[in-house]
Every structure is written in structure tokens, then in C-alpha cells.
Amino acid sequence: MENFTIGLYGSNKTGKKRCPSGGGAIIVQKGTSPLADMIADVKKGLLLGRFSGGSPSDNGDFSGVAKNSYLIENGKICRPVGETMIAGNFGSLFSDVRAISAEEINYGWRIMPWILSGNVTISGKESTTPP
Question: Domain segments of the chain: what residues?
Fold first, then answer.
């Protein structure tokens, strides 16, 4: 790991060094787990395509809406979800990382693998549209 994406606010709060890029170009190192195996390990959860939420609170609590996301049940992607909220704490979320995928997505301004974690609350309606 080369640096943390800590902005000015986080730097002032923690006393840690501010990220040189200001957090604008995030690259997370890929892991070794195949995404298919990670999905197969989920009893019930989400394949989160996009998260829309505000800044987390001072203690790391967050909440927002899952977008472009799919319900996973018994290790299989079942259907897209709509009007689905996610809430949790970033400290707990990152402490519970169980796997990082070998596959990654290059968005041009960030490169990210898929991350299997827990310790979040998911609530909302399920879409009946098949994937």
C-alpha cells in the first residue's frame, strides 16, 4: 500500500498524512479470489454496483442507496434490487473483509476489485425483474 486516501478533514482529525492525490485517483490492489467463488459464498446479500450516499459521520457511520445492484441468495445472483438502502460503519465493514477478487474494474479514474464483506444493514423492496 502506498498511501491512504485521507483528505484534509481526515488528516486534521487523525493527525495522519493527507493523501497526495486528494483521493481523486483510487487504486485498490486486486486479490486472489475468483468473483464467482465470492458470490457462491454469500447466503443472502448484494452485489453492489454503485453506492449513492453522503459523507460518513465522524465515527464512520454511513448510509445510502444501492444502485445498479443485484440480490444474491444462496450463492446465486437472483435479480436486480430497487429502492434499497445500505447502512453500516466503515470500520466494521473493512474489519470484516473476507475476500478480494482477482478481477478488477478500471473506471479510468479508479481501479477496483470486488470486495466480500459484511456488517451492513440492507433494507428495501426487491424487484421482480429477472437479471
Answer: 1-27, 31-104+113-126
